[in-house]
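Fig. S4 source data, part A: sequence.
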Amino acid sequence: MSENVRDAEAVSRFVEAFAAQLVEAGMQRMPARVFAALLSSDEGAMSSAELGEQLRISPAAVSGAVRYLAQTHMVSREREPGSRRERYRVHGDQWYEALTNREAVIKRWEGALREGLASLGVETPAGRRMAETLAFFEFVEGEVSAMMERWRVHREKTFGS
């Protein structure tokens, strides 16, 4: 078998196995399957029809999955040249984008926790729990920022710009 020929059955097994891992980590099932299919496609992009055919799912299921993936910055939508059809693309930096998006969520949680802490008081048992939770998220935010900077340097060295 030539190196350029893909084993569709093996790809399908990968898609389902990787999607199962994403589901176990908390992602919804359909978005996990669509993301794994896009990730495993040579172009990194597929139309709704191609995704539906490969995954044997309805256009509505593709649409819902892509909406979720776009909101979490895991895929982007693009128009096919000369067509009204959209293609959905996964990028090499999707993990960076997803983590960066999570940083914004953590910042919002921190704000809510600060408000909760102010209303509960630091000296109450609930306030102490809230303060520890806030300190944890502040720590994680700093670690993720530092880690992402190290990733950018590593990525540049490994893959170029």
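Fig. S4 source data, part B ends here. Helices lie at 8-24, 29-40, 48-55, 59-71, 94-120, 125-159.
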